[in-house]
Each structure stands twice: as structure tokens, then as C-alpha cells.
Amino acid sequence: MLPRKAVVDCLLPTCVRSYYTRVKKDRFGYPIKPRDPELEEPTRVVKNLISKAPLPAEVRPILHPDHKVFTGTERYQQHINNKISEAFTARTPPNVNKTVSAVFYQEGMQRVGLIGRKLGETRTFLRTGEVKKSTMIEIPTNHVLECSQSLNTRVLGGKGVKIRLGAFDQPDLTEVPLTKQKEFMSLGLVPQLAEYFFLTSPELALPVHFQLDISHFLVGQFVDITAQSVPRGFQGVVRRHGYKGMNMNRPGKTHRRPGSISTQGLKRVLRGKKLAGKMGDNRSTAYNHHVLSVDYGKGHMVVSGHIPGLVGSFCYLRDSREKDPIQGPLLHSPTFLGDREALGNQGIRYDAKVVDPSETFEEAMAKKIAIPNWYM
Q: Residues 242-249: contacts with CB within 8 Å, 24+ apart?
């Protein structure tokens, strides 16, 4: 006697039978791929570590009747993150910093940059008696995640090398996709929050697993900083494009309006017309920022002027392309290869030609320096 399913298959026509045997698709019409057990390996390893690790009584999870796990306290969440970090760093590769040799920097070469975070704005007293507005940036340890040949043929003669850096460890590792978990476990690193590609010269390329820090830059050089500008939302033409507007003493309601946007004969709006719309939240670059001081111990850098982005946002620094770079062996090429611990113990370094570290705010006021209102 045939099974019931076989009998039904024989009685159904081909078109109906194929409906039950075809590949399952999602609501968008794409086929659903089977689950890959290799991608679930990092998560399975982490779950095993957490289940085997004994938890103190005060940090044990609270089980809800709906089978939901509540953290209970912050110590429990910290305990889980520590175990997850141990799972990712269990395959830490050997230190490869010694395999990189110094290269004499020549004009036209392009070094790799660094990933940092904007801490805020401050002021710096100069030897000329002026007060200059400056920005403080935090630069942690940057890891080289990938090094490949660039496909851009317009820069560096088509021979450039694309290097992907990562910085700032991911605080909440449960939000990392499984593909990223597998990638970082193969590298022996905790997943990074910020990643960025830098185009470098082939002579100054760095291998994977190499680590960079704030010693990559020198005090006194100029850097270009790229970041995501501050989002301003939907703005009018006066704020977005700097329109003058009409006289406020005139009657009517056209004080801040764009006015005519086309002509009677054209009967259409030309492409690129300055109108109201979304302002900010774009990738922008600020050029030629002077490095005034560097704290190698804390990993803080002070540069002159404004940089784009909100406080706490990521920024990407590289050598200035317009200013003449420091030639020869004075510039760390491809990066600083000396004793970084000894360099960190030296404290803060200032640009002696520009910055006066002994100058205080009271002394500057005693010299009757005209300080703008935004310093107060």
C-alpha cells in the first residue's frame, strides 16, 4: 500500500505538484537560502562559553514566564561581554610589527591614515599672543583588517593599495551580524565600530594584523580630516544657501522665500537650482589642519580650527595633500616603528614654533588680547 503522500502526488497535476515542491521564497520573491552552520559557529561558541561559565548569585539572569531573559544588573551584561571578547580574541595572531621596515619618504608618496573620534572644541594660546580655536580628537589603536589592490586608475598611477582599518571595539556584540563575527574571529579581533578604506602607495603598504596609533602623526604637520557633517534637517534657502532675503520693513510674506525659480519662456526648473531641502549629514573634508599638540599617553590630538561632525562622531585623518609634507626621515614612513611605550611616557608634545604651553588665560587677558565672544 502506497503512502498517502504518494497517492496525493499521483492524483495532482504537474502544475499543482510543482507548487508544493518548488523552492521557498520570501515576501519579496527571493529564494530563501538554507542556513549555513559555519556562520553560526561564533554564536555557538559564545553560547557555550556563557553556559559553562559560573555566574555569581547577584548577577544571575532573571527568567520571565514568557521565556525572555532579563539582564538583572549591568554587571551581568559586562560579564557576558567579557566572555564574548575572550571568544573573539582566543585566536590572536602574532605581532607582525617587526616585519615592516622603514622607507625614505619622497614627494608623491601617500601614507595610510587613522580613524579617530571628535571629543570637542577648545582653545589654544599661541606665542604671538593670539587665541586660536582648536578641536580635540581621540585616536585609539587602529587595526589593519584588509590590504588589497585598488581599482582606481586615476590616483597614484593606478598602482595604489587599498587598506581597510578598524577602530573602537564594539560595546554590544549581540548586534554584530554573523558574517562579521566570522570575519573578526578569523582575524582574532573584537568587532570594530568604525571601518574606513585608505588609499596608499605600494611602497608604504602595511600587512594585515598591523597596529597603528597616534604616533603615526607628528606634531607640527598638517592633516586633512573627513567626517559626516552635522545634520540640520530641512532648511530654507536663507540658511541652506545664504540667500540675503528681502527687507523686513516691507509688507508681505516673502522675506525669506526663494523668489522666482525659472523664466516664463523656459517653463521648467533647471537642474541644480538652489532651493530649500535637506541640509547637512554629508561626507565632507576639512583641509590643512595644523597639529598643535599630541598627548601620546592618552591618545589625544589637538588640531587647529573646526572639523565637521557632531561631538562623539568618527573622523578620518590623513596627511595633507595641499601643504608640503615633512620630507625625508623626519616623517614616520610608513608609520612609527620605535618604542611606543617610551613615547607614551613623555607626556604632551607641543609645536614649539606656534604654541606657548606656559601661557594661561589670565596672562592672555593681562596682555589685553581681543578674545571673541565664542571663547567666553
A: 243/274
pLDDT digits (tens, 9 = 90+) for 133-159: 999 999 999 999 999 888 887 788 788
Q: What is the distance between the alpha carbons of residues 253 and 246, in angstroms, rounded to a whole number?
A: 10
DSSP tag of 209: T
Asked if 98 and 77 count as a contact pair (C-beta separation under 8 A), the reply is no
Q: What are phi and psi of 154, to 5 degrees?
A: -95, -15
* Cα–Cα distance, 210 to 65 (Å, whole number): 48
Output the DSSP codes for 301-354.
EEEES--SS-TT-EEEEEE-SSSPPPPBTTS-SSS--S-HHHHHTT-EEE-TTT
Q: What are phi and psi of 242, to 5 degrees?
A: 75, 30
Q: Where are the alpha helices (DSSP H) in 2-156?
A: 4-11, 14-21, 41-52, 74-88
Helices (H), the chain: 4-11, 14-21, 41-52, 74-88, 178-187, 237-241, 340-344, 361-366
- Pairing state between β 283-295 and 300-304: antiparallel
Position 308 scores a pLDDT of: 94
Q: Where are the beta strands (DSSP E) in 215-281?
A: 222-228, 233-235, 277-279
Q: Please report, as a single letter, which amino acid is at residue 27.
A: R
Predicted structure pTM score: 0.70
Instruction: Give the pLDDT score at 321.
Output: 85
